[in-house]
Amino acid sequence: MRLNRTKHPLFTAVTLCAFFITSQAYSAVRPQLTRIVAYASDKETPIEVINDSQEPYLIQSWLEDLSGNDANLPLVLTPPVMKLGGKQEGKLRLVVLPAEIPQDRESVYWLSIQEIPPKAKESENNKLVLAIRSRLKVFVRPKGLDSGKASDAVKSLTWNIEREGGNVWLKATNPTPYYVNFGQLSLKVGGAKETKLEDKIQMPAPMSSQRYAVPKGLVGKSATLTYSAVNDYGGETDVLTTGVKL
Description:
By secondary structure, the protein is mainly beta. Helices cover 0% and strands 46% of the residues.
């Protein structure tokens, strides 16, 4: 069974006239974890999902690489579609194809879990039904990578300033075989308010580097860079600081 996917993280499943709409939408179906770490040496990696609502929901799940491609991935996810009753838990199964992943470093993919709500009843003609998509990272580790060292990767980052055409970037170089997913990434000049770098979602890849744009108002000043990473369990590593001349 294949259902059409929307490329937007939130779409209206049933659009009906409503006089009042709450400012926030909450997912009925959600994964138990905020990130998945899959080891090539494991037979499979279970991914638990829960339906917090009283109503049954269909769930469609799929994988993509960081560029949005979903074809010829070295991962198998089952089932692609399943039904989850109200207040019930379910389980997806992720299998890594060890021979097809990089053997000296982590690789990362996106897992999307799309809830498909039940059709609105005739008595609920003024009800707006929203279908929410959860999206989380899947970190795939080949045999031989020590999970205990993943949280230390952020400590190995080195920082440089790059200037080009009037623009300034902070460049993070990552010499480790792990991705660094920033928890904090901000700059502070003197007693001024801390400035968060909005492009912190871009991760320094293993044995590579990533640039982060410095806001124009900070260029030419001395600042304190504050940064941390998100660990395997969704928590934050120790917060680190270093001085930089922007």
